[in-house]
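Journal club prep, notes for RB
We'll compare a predicted complex against what the paper describes. Inputs for the (2R)-2,3-dihydroxypropanoic acid case:
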Amino acid sequence: MKIFLNKAIPQVGMKILNDSNNEIIIPAKENISDVEFLKYCKNADVILNVGGNKLDKEFFDNCPNLKAISLFSVGYNSVDIAEATKRKIPVGNTPDVLSRATSDIAFLLMQSVSRLASHNFQKVKDGNWGSFDPMENLGQELYGKTLGVFGLGRIGFEMAKKCKAAFDMEIIYHNRSRNEEVEKELGAKYVSFEELVKNSDVLSIHANFEAKDSNLFNAEIFAKMKPNLIFINTARGGFQNEKDLYKALKNGTIWGAGLDVTNPEPMEKSNSLLQLSNVCVLPHIGSATIEARNGMAKIAAENAVSFTKGEKMKTCVNP
Ligand code: DGY
């Protein structure tokens, strides 16, 4: 079969693909346009997709030959799963291997914002390290505070574990369903969305993004949060209304925000959020460790190759 990859992946995954009995197609140049992407996909049996290309109904209509999709990501919001399922196209993703790395970034952002680290680093770089002032550069401590996890799956669990171990934080969470194992292990408490918003000192998003969640965190919700709230998002930028977030941060409605994901990506250099001292933005690097990316490469390649051998993908998000 023909497997199309829009970008090369780490060697461990390339080897699995190249050792299989398939034709592996990779564009010669690094970044291809949407038109070129579609042209390649039209000729492929399987695509191994790196990045957030929209694979929606129109895309599927244009690729009648397509039989399977292997995503190089755990998130699958870029794919119309219902449409893929209707067409009997399995969609694989890469769970587990990036949970620690992504939760590390959520934890890092939380600490960075609580102590205004990136703002202060910028001050040093700009030559603005002034004299000691007892009232300046004041952060807030995290010990014993309440972490609210929105979406307590694998990544949310890793974040909660770290916050409990490092700062003895209370853990509350809101999910589609309760997770009694996590409640037992971390003493976590299941709460309604309203309670999560109202009672968290840090609110960290770890849910899978769906269209209905667009702008879920908006002015109305920020207004209900504590003034010391640290908002962390390492999931998908679509969860936050960035204009509302800017106002909430500027007006002191909430304390700060740490974002590894923005809407859109990449974030424009002129985005007003970047002017604020209580914000730290990273360029979607949650899974960017050698270990996590090797793990993702292995799973994504294995998923693609298993399909070509008539086997079920190991990690498939649709039945
Ligand atoms: C994921 O795996 O979903 C990461 O966000 C990278 O896209």
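Talking point for the session: The pocket of (2R)-2,3-dihydroxypropanoic acid is lined by residues 73-75, 98, 286-287 (CB under 6 Å).
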